[in-house]
Design a protein that fits this description.
Elements: E1 3-7, H1 12-22, E2 25-26, H2 33-40, E3 44-50, H3 57-61, E4 68-72, H4 81-87, E5 90-92, H5 99-115, H6 117-125, H7 128-132, E6 146-149, H8 153-164, E7 169-172, E8 183-184, H9 188-194, E9 197-200, H10 214-220, E10 225-228, H11 237-245, E11 251-254, E12 273-275, H12 284-304
Parallel strand pairs: 1-2, 1-3, 3-4, 4-5, 6-7, 6-9, 7-8, 9-10, 10-11, 11-12
């Protein structure tokens, strides 16, 4: 008997399908968790979770029969991939279907920060236009030098959008792409030093933690903007806040933070910073596609013991 476990909150319609079609168990929070796992842990063969929650080290250990983690979201840094690989546990995510919306969000953040759209909207709403006059001049997006950290599916979709704005593109990631027209930089800091807008589009997790460190942010400089639609862990958030407060960065557009849903207090009063509550893929259309792909992965695992879109680490 294959038992499905829901781990963490999920889109309500997805949770509903898990309950009604798959009779899924739901992992409780807090003190009930231990007794729940003692009773049901051994029966669970597949966990359905989201990138926000994941199946971490201890939970995975408490599920000895686990064969698959089906993840709603492209990012899976909250799941213990090393243990999954070691135990032969499959892990799936939801790539491709969210690429366009996340890339659109990166462009939206860029336009908003450089042109001050949210700040100008606040200016109108607080009645400042008739009393204080014209809104200050802001900065042009078209033609700016853009650096992309992580030229995967989402990074490439962001790059092609910026190309339509006439922006020269360069990038950094571990390996240089052969045949790319974009300029390669061997480090995040050299990329940051060369561009006016640095867009973080790399996967989260241990391999990229703090990749955009204080040096990289200093290199981006007082005329430079940071856009992050990836994971807060990729950027040294304390350094980012310091430099923004000190005026040593021109601005930032952030959809992700180090300790969501906590947003550093010091950013709340800054008009050159746009803060979003992790909504990169948050459209009706994209979330429906992510839900369908999650259910397709689950059905495939239950019927055939394989997932349709495995994460690269578990592809055998
Ligand atoms: C989702 C995301 O909000 O796909 C991802 O990695 O960050 C977002 O699309 C999130 O994963 C859903 O839980």
């Amino acid at each position: 008997m294959k038992r499905v476990l829901q781990v963490g909150p999920l889109k309500p319609s997805l949770a509903q399908t898990l309950a009604t079609t798959y009779d899924a168990l739901v992992l409780p929070e807090g003190s009930e968790r231990g007794s729940f796992l003692a009773e049901h842990g051994a029966a669970v063969t597949v966990a359905v979770t989201s990138g926000r929650t994941g199946v971490g080290t201890d939970l995975m250990r408490a599920l000895p029969s686990l064969g698959a983690v089906v993840n709603f979201g492209v990012g899976y840094d909250t799941t213990d991939i090393a243990q999954a690989v070691e135990r032969g546990i499959l892990v799936s995510n939801t790539p491709d279907v969210l690429t366009d919306c996340v890339a659109d969000t990166a462009l939206g953040l860029t336009l908003d920060v450089l042109r001050g759209l949210s700040a100008a909207d606040r200016y109108v709403r607080r009645g400042a236009w008739p009393t204080e006059g014209n809104f200050p001049l802001m900065h042009r997006v078209s033609g700016k030098r853009v650096g992309i950290l992580g030229l995967g599916r989402i990074g490439r979709a962001i790059a092609t959008r910026f190309e339509a704005f006439g922006c020269p593109i360069s990038y950094h990631q571990r390996t240089e792409l052969s045949g790319s027209n974009y300029g390669y930089h061997p480090t995040a800091t050299s990329l940051a030093a060369a561009v006016e807008i640095l867009v973080v589009a790399t996967a989260g997790g241990a391999g990229t933690r703090g990749l955009v460190d204080r040096d990289a942010l200093v290199a981006l400089g007082p005329e430079g903007y940071l856009i992050n639609i990836a994971r807060g862990s990729v950027v040294d958030e304390d350094a980012l806040v310091d430099l923004l407060v000190e005026g040593r960065l021109a601005g930032a557009g952030l959809d992700v933070f180090a300790a969501e849903p906590k947003v550093p207090e010091a950013l709340l009063g800054l008009d050159n910073v746009v803060l979003l509550p992790h909504v990169g893929s948050g459209t009706v259309e994209t979330r429906a596609a992510m839900e369908q792909l999650t259910l397709d992965n689950l059905a495939s695992y239950l019927a055939a013991g394989r997932v349709l879109t495995p994460v690269p680490e578990v592809v055998r």
